[in-house]
Write a structure and sequence with these properties.
GO terms for molecular function: cyclin-dependent protein serine/threonine kinase regulator activity. The radius of gyration is 21 Å and the shape is globular. 54% of the residues lie in helices and 2% in strands. A hairpin with a 5-residue loop joins strand 1 and strand 2. It is mainly alpha-helical.
Length: 402
């Protein structure tokens, strides 16, 4: 296999970051501070019972309802998932300067195309295959089967959000700091995006099955990244590399021991497709420009820090980030392509868009490492652009979702 081959659809989205950023040092300090604060009696610190900050009680209920609606045992039940039709209307029912009577406008100002049975459907499958062919890594003839299989796996390998939300409050705080630390390490080592998302999935699934003390959260995070790299990377980091980034807190024997234990708990099942696979598919079909793709990638990484997003499927998370990105960039329409491929319309995503916007309000406290990474020229300073947009659109941020 040629390691120099690039994925055409996402070739500009790598993990480059300026070496001048002291990401690891800042995150290490955060982890140590939270460990000291919660090391004495963490058991009595639980999530507050009031509504989640930043979204309404209706949206809070909707998030839990959406999670419960597709919850299934990954080990005992066969998930039956109907294949979604990939045929899309790419050149019909387009939005012109004069809005079509078949369009509605969302609260974010995006024109939403409604279905029209009279629209022409000429050569849709051929057009879709041509767009798939733009990326050599896509097997066109098996596209529908691959997507159907991915949809099954994304549910099968979801963490148990209800168990995670019942954990002591210090676990949530430590998780956020550890994820910021993982992002910093992942960026410095220059790993694939898939490795980052899989590592958080491994960590969350482990946390939903085991109670982890604060003192071992960082070890679990490093081990989750180690496992994900072995699964995704051609040249994964070594145990010695992890010892260096852990700065002597844990030795190789500790890492290997935790690796064995985590894999045993997870029953060696690591086939989660992750959001990058769905993002690549939607990028090809929708011909998204570089700015929107990078912005979606930024939102996906921000969502890793917020535990409430672990209740979403990978495809649902990508759809949420895509809608938010289109809102900020003032894209002209929310086409039928994304709902037909992912199965989510914009109305089913509004609650999660509000939550994402709330997370983006204060990047320096919520996701400093990710903000710093995407503030670099390599990523077109996309995080600063988003922060400026939020600062000048306080009316959107004040919406309660009603």
């Amino acid at each position: 296999m040629n390691s120099n081959n690039k994925r055409v659809a996402l070739q500009e989205i790598s993990n480059y970051v300026s070496k001048s950023l002291n990401v690891k040092g800042w995150v290490n300090a955060q982890v140590r501070e939270i460990s000291l604060q919660n090391g004495c009696s963490p058991s009595d610190k639980h999530f507050p019972s009031q509504s989640w900050h930043g979204i309404s009680s209706i949206e809070e209920s909707q998030i839990q309802k959406d999670y419960d609606s597709f919850l299934a045992s990954p080990l005992e039940e066969e998930i039956v998932f109907t294949e979604k039709q990939l045929l899309v209307d790419l050149d019909v029912c387009s939005i012109s300067n004069v809005q079509s009577p078949n369009c509605s406008v969302s609260e974010f100002g995006i024109a939403i195309e409604e279905s029209n049975d009279n629209c022409a459907e000429e050569d849709e499958e051929e057009e879709l295959q041509m767009r798939y062919s733009a990326d050599e890594s896509v097997s066109v003839e098996y596209a529908k089967e691959i997507l159907s299989h991915m949809e099954k796996l994304e549910i099968r390998f979801m963490p148990d959000y209800r168990h995670m939300s019942a954990q002591p409050y210090y676990v949530t705080e430590m998780r956020a700091s550890v994820i910021n630390w993982i992002v910093g390490v992942h960026t410095c080592i220059n790993l694939l995006p898939e490795s980052l998302f899989l590592s958080i999935n491994v960590l969350d699934r482990f946390l939903s099955l085991q109670n982890v003390p604060a003192s071992k959260m960082k070890l679990c995070g490093a081990t989750a990244l180690f496992i994900a790299c072995k699964y995704e990377e051609i040249h994964p980091p070594t145990v010695k590399d992890l010892e260096i980034v852990l700065e002597g807190e844990w030795i190789g024997e500790d890492i290997c021991g935790m690796e064995k234990y985590m894999l045993m708990v997870l029953q060696y099942q690591l086939g989660w497709p992750g959001p990058v696979s769905f993002l690549r598919l939607l990028t090809i079909v929708n011909k998204w420009e570089s700015q929107l793709r990078i912005m979606i990638k930024y939102f996906l990484e921000v969502s890793l820090v917020e535990q409430r997003f672990s209740s979403l499927r990978a495809s649902q998370l990508v759809a949420t980030c895509a809608y938010t990105g289109q809102s900020i960039l003032q894209e002209e329409n929310w086409s039928n392509t994304l709902p037909q491929i992912t199965g989510y319309d914009y109305m089913s995503l509004v609650s999660y868009v509000h939550l994402l916007l709330k997370c983006l309000e204060n990047p320096f406290d919520h996701h400093y490492a990710i903000y710093s990474k995407y503030a670099t020229p390599y990523f077109h300073g996309i995080s600063r652009q988003v922060h400026d947009w939020i600062a000048t659109n306080t009316n959107l941020m004040a919406m309660d979702g009603s």
